[in-house]
UniProtKB/TrEMBL annotation:
GO terms for molecular function: ferrochelatase activity; transmembrane transporter activity. Pfam families: Ferrochelatase, MFS_1. NCBIfam families: hemH. Its EC number is 4.98.1.1. It comes from the Eukaryota. Pathway: Porphyrin-containing compound metabolism; protoheme biosynthesis; protoheme from protoporphyrin-IX: step 1/1. This is Ferrochelatase, mitochondrial. CDD domains: Ferrochelatase_C, Ferrochelatase_N. The chain crosses the membrane at residues 565-584, 596-617, 624-646, 658-677, 748-773, 785-810, 830-847, 887-910, 916-940. The keyword Transmembrane applies.
Amino acid sequence: MAMRTSLSLPCRIISNNASHNVRSATRLVKRPLNGHGFATAASVPKKGSKGPTAMVLLNMGGPSKVSEVEDFLSRLFADADLIPLGPLQKYLGPLIARRRTPKIQKQYSDIGGGSPIRKWSEYQCEEMCKILDEISPETAPHKPYVAFRYADPLTEEMYNKLLEDGFGGGNGGRAVAFTQYPQYSCSTTGSSLNELWKWRNRLEGPRSGQDPAGAIQWSVIDRWPTHPGLVEAFAKNIEDQLATYPEEKRSSVVILFSAHSLPMSVVNRGDPYTAEVATTVHAVMQRLGFSNPYRLSWQSQVGPSAWQGAQTSHTVENYVKKGFTDMILVPIAFTSDHIETLYELDKEVIGEAGHAGIKRAESLNGNPTFIRALADIAKTHLESGEKCSRQMTLRCQGCKSERCLEQKKFFAGDDLKSLFSPMSAIGGDAAIAVDVDQDARVMREEESLGASETSPLLPTSEVVDEEPELNDNLNKPWLGSPEFDAKPWWRRPNVWYLIPPTALFTFAVGGSVVPKINLVLSIVCRDYFADQKAKDPTFTYLPVIFGEENDQCRIPQVQSNAAQILLYVNLISGFLSALVSPRLGDLSDRYGRMPLMSLCVAGTLVSEVFVTFIAAYPDHASVNWLLVAAFVDGLCGSFTLALSLVHSYGADWKVLDVFLAVLVLHGIYLFTLFFLIPESLSKERQNIARTKHLAKPQEGDANFQRNFLRELHPYNIFKPLAILWPKPSPSQSSPEKRALFRKLRKNLVLIAAIDTLMFGVGLGTVQIIILYAEYVFGWGNYESSVFISVVNGGRVITLLVILPGITRLIRGPTRGNQVNSGSDWLDISLIRLAIFIDLLGYIGYAVSKTGGIFTLSALVASIGGIGPPSLQSSLTKHVPPSQTGRILGAMGLLHALARVVSPVIFNGIYSVTVGTFTQAVFVCLASVFGLAAFLSWFIIPNVHLPESLPSSPSEAEDNTTIDA
């Protein structure tokens, strides 16, 4: 239960302030400034004084004019202490700053043309020094200085001014670095102290040639979150704002404290900021007697990384929806007005809320109580003789920064260096050496991240009924040309060459399925609990450890959020794949299979680099980087074949080891495809396809932009599907041939539909099956990986032993020539059998009560793996060899669309029903197989497209044959 005893406040702080109105007292008093932009000295030396003492207020700062915004943002995004962007920060920072400048300039224009933080900081420092001269004459005179991290006056400028004024440079002198952030954070106070330490070393350190004995003697006021004067100033401003509400409503007004957010990577490292903000909130509410309901929220999130939540804007929006329209926002971590209060809170949060009852407490600014509190803090520090607080000597638990350690040692001084001995054992020189190596590895990985696929993938405008006639001989060998006869045996195409590298590829993809899902689950779980902690400071939870079992994450909310993230990944990859897959399939007819396969694998390789980076640095990377990986994967075509031959291996590996191994395997596969495996499509056939393509009219080639936009038209996106709907010419058709074409179209559409349904279910539910099993049966990485291995082991046996055995037994030895005959009775029977087996498996999923029965159901469903190859084979038998690339391109489009639609539906069902009727998703999936089984009974055997396609729809009929 929270204590309600009020904090005592020194009389000297609150004296003579009771009669002041806060709003009138905080009007800015304009004073003449010297040429350097610093406040003039407030006093002169007194007899017996140990002064002068330089009082340096530290802050991040803000641009005083709109023209300073870009420089301010460039420095802001270059600071890895505040916004960590990785080793490429010095390159990414200016780009982000330049892109955001126009928007931020407009915001500063809306609050008067610049930030008032410099004027308030100079005023606060001057007034504090005046009071210090009175209450601490032994250290007078106190000279005011302001040092900003990102805006004028910069730390460098302040330090040079100190030297000009006679501090240091052989003269010695005392200076106090006084942070204007009451709550300590490595991103704010720590960053400012790092900058101060840097310029001290440059201007007074060993390299400067100055006498160390005559350098400035620094001490630090690094935090003051619960100082009674600070608490009183906040409480008085809240009371003033509460007084504006009707008396009957005051006790129900929600007090919403808002503080600047931090990246979760900083929070998880052990930064004390969030805890100290919470102590300030508690102290203020204790001073108010806990008279009102209150919450703490976080604002000003920037960039793609995960940040501390809940966001202030979302909190206000949600409370308004719940009927709380009387609310006071309190900027609890800010001591002066600037863009975060005047624009983000006043204009965005309060302005967009649209309720008169939502207000903001006045900022501290020139509040006399606050300024006397600053003077009291400084006086206590000067009297103590301490270099810094004991708390500052304790590093964050996960800190391995050499700069941070050396900076703390410098400011702590000789008296406190003994405190760093135990720290060095856990995070000192040895840890620093490791950190340097890790940084080098991150640099190499980030350089790999910078690689992009720039190969142009020009779309084609061909459709089936516009195909010029090709000289495809019915009796021509399947590989199509005597060109291969002149080559040595190891350069002749052979399907066995493709099996080993494909096995590596599928091994890599399958081996990362379970770790990737659990990686997403861990990150989502971590962010969820952090958000709950922010909403309720009393909320406690076990830390989420990456790569380990986290039983606390097996709750419906985390499962639902993880399913949504995986949905977005599949949605992005599937949509882009839907755009490029048909074009890649068409291009493979003209330029060969290997280059296009290499391109797809290259896209997968690059996307896995992003995933590996997340796995290597989960505290520094947001789960949103998976969306970037999905974008790259989809842009290069992604994989549109079911991963039925994948074994899940590495259950005993660390998470990072899995992804590093995946990168190696993908790289081997790409190298093998591009350099070793012979092309299966002869040059003769490639040249025929290219000549045919070039012979077509290209009306839009002169205008690439118009051509590109035309290809993005929905009609053109779906145009590759025209091969599934061939039409005869009305002028040359007969009733019999039109009937035959109707049967042909019916077959193509039915088989394509069944294949799309089965592909969508098979690919779109792998992640759901793992999430479901880990949630319902409490499985971890090991159990899930064994499950994947068993299931896919059954699928491998089915595809490599059972299916070839049935085909060989019934059809006999394979023929050397490819003859188009359409689907025969064996194809259709295998399709129906596969659907029935899959249906049994998914019914088993839904009714399983134990992990063993669930695995048995999956093993039964794996036998249904005979369906996809039977469907693909049956479909290609309906077209001549010259159209195989196009028919597979059309199927690639349908598969990609299935990758978009299937996760949206089934991940959505799972995220909604988890915890209530969790197995509902499997009931729906079984229904899909029931629909596929119904459609399979309408397939007609022995229907196929003729070898020579008509050059126009009118020629199609004459070349169509059908076997009864």
